[in-house]
Design brief:
By secondary structure, the protein is mainly beta. The chain is built from two helices and 14 strands, in the order ββββββαββββαββββ.
């Protein structure tokens, strides 16, 4: 069964397994997930999926005025139409088989109990951005030698093309540029703990993004050999 949740990266800590080995884990808050919409391959959408909402939204309260959600009206309207009283900040869609659509209901609250200890998962998030960086940091270049008269070119990438043929820089040449701040998926991570009371999952190893970043947790599509 394909399962998925949205979550917020809280930080890293450590746990000990049955053999007494110390295992680094990432704590992910997955509370307040709610099913916003179901899509069927037999409907107008043409494919089967569920749409999840995550992240609490505060109300803007001013004296003499009716409290309003700190979210624009179209986004609030999506939740109102679905019969959900509290809108969510983030909305993502997860493809699921048509056969399990009946296991979900619009307005249903989902939490860490959706996963079990030992489950294999894929985690998708936005990696930390490093801005505009050179080839040594961006592509792990070695740089130029620091002897025999080299000066001002210690961290340069060197030649990027030929003069006569083909007389242009080849497409895909590794050069300085934007580093990080892109969607990254880490596959085949393992659930090391399910904290139902705290609404959190413990995931073995590191996951993309900074603390507070939003991640998508799904059932692994390529289970590693054990």
């Amino acid at each position: 069964m394909i399962k998925g949740l949205l979550g917020k990266k809280v930080g890293m800590t450590q746990v000990f397994d049955e053999a007494g080995n110390r295992v680094p884990v990432t704590v992910v808050d997955v509370s307040s997930n709610v099913v916003v919409q179901k899509k069927s391959s037999h409907g107008k959408d043409g494919y089967s999926a569920i749409k999840l909402g995550f992240g609490k939204v505060k109300k803007l309260e001013k004296e003499g005025k009716e409290p309003k959600w700190r979210l624009n009206k179209p986004r609030v309207g999506v939740f109102t139409e679905a019969g959900i009283e509290e809108p969510r900040r983030h909305v993502r869609e997860i493809r699921v088989p048509e056969s399990i659509l009946d296991d979900f209901e619009v307005g249903q609250e989902l939490g860490p109990e959706l996963f079990s200890l030992g489950d294999w998962i894929d985690v998708t998030g936005t990696s930390k951005g490093s801005g505009f960086t050179g080839v040594m940091k961006r592509h792990n270049f070695a740089g130029a030698k620091a002897t025999h008269g080299t000066h001002e070119f210690f961290r340069h990438g060197g030649s990027i093309g030929m003069s006569a043929t083909p007389a242009h820089v080849l497409k895909g040449m590794k050069m300085p540029g934007q580093h990080g701040n892109r969607q990254v998926t880490i596959q085949n991570l393992q659930v090391m703990g399910v904290m139902e009371e705290d609404g959190a999952l413990l995931i073995k190893g590191g996951i993309p993004g900074p603390n507070g970043g939003i991640v998508l947790i799904r059932t692994a599509t390529k289970k590693v050999a054990v």
